[in-house]
Design goal:
It is a single chain. Helix 1 (13-21) crosses helix 2 (25-47) and helix 6 runs antiparallel to helix 7 (155-162). By secondary structure, the chain is mostly helical. The protein is built from eight helices and no strands. The protein folds into two domains: 13-100, Orthogonal Bundle (Rna Polymerase Sigma Factor, Chain: A), CATH 1.10.1740; 137-184, Winged helix-like DNA-binding domain superfamily/Winged helix DNA-binding domain (Arc Repressor Mutant, subunit A).
Length: 193
């Protein structure tokens, strides 16, 4: 049971957001439990594709996890969440239009690639490990990774936002990914050059 600062067994979304921003994993889990259907339905209405909606739901909650500290309470939490999901779906469409994907039918998918069910506690632990690893990256690597892989900016836009050349941005992204692989496998990150 989650209790907010007044020992309320049913804290508001705003109170949960404050607790989650302070690192309370149970508060984040409660936000996920309360709003997963809402996020999925927004994504489904916009994409009209159940698989994309499911992926975007997970991506949106990853963003919620990363940005929960930016929620200031000036609007309802659901308003903030709705904006975040809509922006993530729009980024998905922009990304998809720049690189067309080959569609695979269900029969073409080998059974070995069908993912097994992952425990939500495992997912949360993985998210914490990834967040910690991203924070350990040198600033240039971290910026390139967040702008391109998390926020979904194209290389040109990420370079402009970070005030680097496209080549530098791509290089830092490559090094960030390599460092993250090393960090997540228990090694030391590469040093920024």
């Amino acid at each position: 049971m989650i209790r907010n600062e007044r020992n309320n067994p049913n804290p508001t979304d705003e109170a949960l957001a404050r607790m989650a921003a302070d690192g309370n994993a149970l508060a984040f889990d409660e936000i996920y439990r309360r709003h997963r259907s809402f996020v999925y339905n927004v994504a489904l209405r916009m994409t009209r594709n159940a698989a994309d909606a499911e992926d975007l739901t997970q991506e949106s909650f990853f963003l919620v996890f990363r940005r929960i500290g930016s929620f200031r309470g000036e609007a309802l939490f659901t308003t903030w969440l709705y904006r975040l999901v809509v922006n993530r779906v729009k980024m998905h469409f922009r990304s998809r239009s720049s690189r067309p994907e080959m569609q695979t039918s269900y029969e073409e998918i080998p059974w070995t690639t069908v993912p097994h069910h992952i425990d939500p506690a495992e997912q949360f632990t993985d998210r914490l490990a990834i967040d910690k690893a991203v924070r350990m990256l040198p600033p240039g690597y971290r910026t390139a990774f967040i702008l391109h892989d998390v926020e979904g900016y194209k290389h040109e836009d990420a370079a402009r936002l970070s005030r680097h050349t496209v080549g530098t941005s791509k290089s830092q992204l490559h090094k960030a990914r390599a460092s993250l692989r090393t960090l997540l496998c228990g090694g030391a990150p590469a040093l920024q050059t």
